């Protein structure tokens, strides 16, 4: 049985993962959410203005924090206090005790290990606090950086859905990875 506690603050060595706040809008615009290519790679629309981001907060992100089974974190770099991305259990299946993670990091912060650091922290939260049985992360077949992050986090490759995503003028596959709680516990014995 899952224990839904909603989005709680998580601290790692270099990051604070917390609920989005309206004060994050400017750094989000600077670092990732207004970047068309970053958002395209993430699979989400880009939001070029503060009004656009505020509407996103009011209709989806911040308004949803009242739901105990809603898990979406702003990723804050400790040294700069900048919102450099986000991570979420965007799909929560309570009946099957399963959660699926999505994430995005701004281009200036990629290649520094932040995605791995935040993903490991959210996986830990999912198993220890929510009590998921299985956690999944998927990525497009062309997204090698995300594949490396997923593998560093200890997930097992399950297979590829061929021609899963239509991307402007072509199809791309979807790689599926997962980790079971029992596997994660073996990997993270203290």
Automatic annotation (TrEMBL):
It comes from the Bacteria. Keywords: Transferase. Residues 15-178 form the N-acetyltransferase domain. GO terms for molecular function: acyltransferase activity, transferring groups other than amino-acyl groups. Coiled coil: none annotated. PANTHER family: GNAT FAMILY, PUTATIVE (AFU_ORTHOLOGUE AFUA_3G00765)-RELATED-RELATED (PTHR43792). This is Acetyltransferase, GNAT family. It comes from Ruminococcus callidus ATCC 27760. The lineage of its organism: Bacteria, Bacillati, Bacillota, Clostridia, Eubacteriales.
């Amino acid at each position: 049985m899952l224990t839904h506690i909603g989005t709680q603050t998580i601290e790692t060595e270099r990051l604070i993962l917390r609920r989005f706040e309206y004060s994050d809008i400017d750094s989000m615009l600077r670092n990732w959410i207004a970047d068309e290519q970053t958002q395209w790679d993430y699979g989400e629309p880009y939001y070029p203005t503060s009004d656009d981001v505020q509407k996103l907060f009011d209709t989806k992100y911040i308004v949803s924090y009242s739901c105990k089974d809603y898990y979406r974190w702003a990723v804050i770099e400790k040294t700069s206090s900048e919102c450099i991305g986000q991570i979420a259990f965007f799909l929560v299946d309570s009946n099957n005790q399963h959660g699926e993670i999505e994430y995005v990091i701004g281009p200036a912060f990629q290649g520094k290990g932040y995605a791995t650091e935040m993903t490991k922290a959210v996986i830990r939260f999912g198993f220890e606090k929510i009590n998921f049985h299985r956690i999944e992360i998927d990525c497009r077949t062309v997204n090698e950086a995300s594949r490396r992050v997923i593998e560093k986090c200890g997930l097992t490759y399950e297979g590829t859905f061929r021609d899963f995503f239509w991307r402007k003028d072509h199809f791309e596959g979807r790689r599926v990875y997962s980790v079971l709680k029992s596997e994660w516990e073996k990997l993270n014995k203290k």
